[in-house]
Amino acid sequence: MKNKILALSIVLMLTSICLIPISSVQAIGEGDWITKYTVENAQTKELLLEVDFTEDIDVQYSSILAGTTLKVTFTVKVTSGTGSLGLRTDMQKATGEDTFWRLISDDYELGSEYNPASASTKFNWEKGTFEMTCIGKVRQVTKATNVTLVELSSAGVVLDAIKPLVVTAAGSDFQNLYIQYEDRLRNLINSGVASGYTAMYSNMLNQSKALDRKGYTEEAIALLKAIPTSGEPLGSALEMILLPVMGVLAALAVVFLVLFLRIRGKVSYFTLVVEDQIKDLEGLTLRASKIDRAMSSNLESVKDRLKRLVGM
After folding, report:
1. Hey, which of 94, 148, 243, 296 would disulfide with 90, CB 3.0 to 4.6 Å?
2. Which residue range forms the structural domain that includes residue 249?
């Protein structure tokens, strides 16, 4: 046993040593080259995203929707080097626009390779700082996707990039709803709600986010709305009573994932699991009604959702 512990310690030490040089390498999206940027709706002028690494600012004001025409204003700090640097965007040329790139600074020379009308272009590698804009239309996506609005590279190696999350209209609705439920979870934790309940609540939030990332946004919204909004256990005395409820919520989250991810071979098995949970919940609802009517009503709502889910 001691030999195993010693061997594990050596492995961890070697791993740490190997990681030390890596930490000194400049990371993408951490302000080493692109020091600050804003993303706004080019048509409405609405500010959507603001990041400034020097001032420690990182604020998402609103969702970035697919198909939107954006104006990205960014500042690049170029270190010493030779040759050329590359600029690229995955956005399409916006209607009424002849170019993608516009240099704002007048004290930086981009050189003859620079072509503002091309989605991918090069410019002189000269030490200095410049500000530029990129205007384009975000491509359509079927699920929440990180899209490259601006990429800075050298000889094919990406040095830095602006790659925010782009969502569909339904994805925007999900994000807004998710934020509401996330805020509610924080309030529940601060209010001293039973830790087992808040842990299950958090798990359902994570499951909904996983569904949204896989493109099942409507199902993710449905799962969020299945989270009870009242009757939370306010003390340890009620925690044991609510433990079966947490099991029901866990089963509900699993069933949502299974059914909506179309894993048909396992649906019948999970349907049987949920049916058993429904039977347990009926008894629990009766017991809870003697303690808290609001809690009982909430459990009844969860039970009805489960019944509809499996077609009972």
Report:
1. 148
2. 169-310
Return d(Cα 222, Cα 152) in angstroms, integer: 39
* Per-position pLDDT tens, the chain of length 312: 444 333 433 333 333 333 333 333 355 667 789 999 999 999 999 999 999 999 999 998 988 989 999 999 999 999 988 899 999 999 999 999 999 999 999 999 999 999 999 999 999 999 999 999 999 999 988 888 899 999 999 998 999 999 999 988 777 788 888 888 888 888 888 888 777 777 777 887 888 887 777 777 777 788 788 777 776 666 554 444 555 555 555 555 555 554 554 444 444 444 554 565 556 556 655 655 555 565 556 556 665 655 665 566
**Do 89 and 154 have their domain in common?**
yes
Element containing residue 183 per DSSP (H, E): helix 169-190
Smallest CA-to-CA distance from 90 within 66, 60, 110 is with: 66
By CB neighbour count within 10 A (0-12 exposed, 13-18 middle, 19+ buried), where does 290 fall? Answer: exposed
User: Is position 27 within any domain?
Assistant: no
Sheet holding 57-60: strands in order across?
57-60, 47-52, 34-41, 69-78, 128-137, 101-103
Question: At 106, which CATH number?
Answer: 2.60.40
- How far is CA 175 from each of CA 1, 145, 163, 180, rounded to the nearest angstrom? 49, 13, 18, 9
Looking at the structure, do residues 177 and 296 belong to the same domain, yes or no? yes
Cα end-to-end distance, the chain, whole Å: 54
> Are residues 205 and 216 both part of a single domain?
yes
